[in-house]
Amino acid sequence: MSEVELSSAFGADYTLLRDLLAAGKWKEADDETRLVMLKVADRESIGWLNEDSIKELPCTDLRTIDQLWVTYSQGRFGFSVQKRIYDEVGRDWETMGDRVGWRSGKKWLSLSSLTYNIDAPIGHLPGSGVWVTSLVWGLWSKSAENFYSRVEICKL
Question: Which of its termini does the chain have fewer beta carbons within 10 Å around, N or C?
Answer without folding.
Answer: N
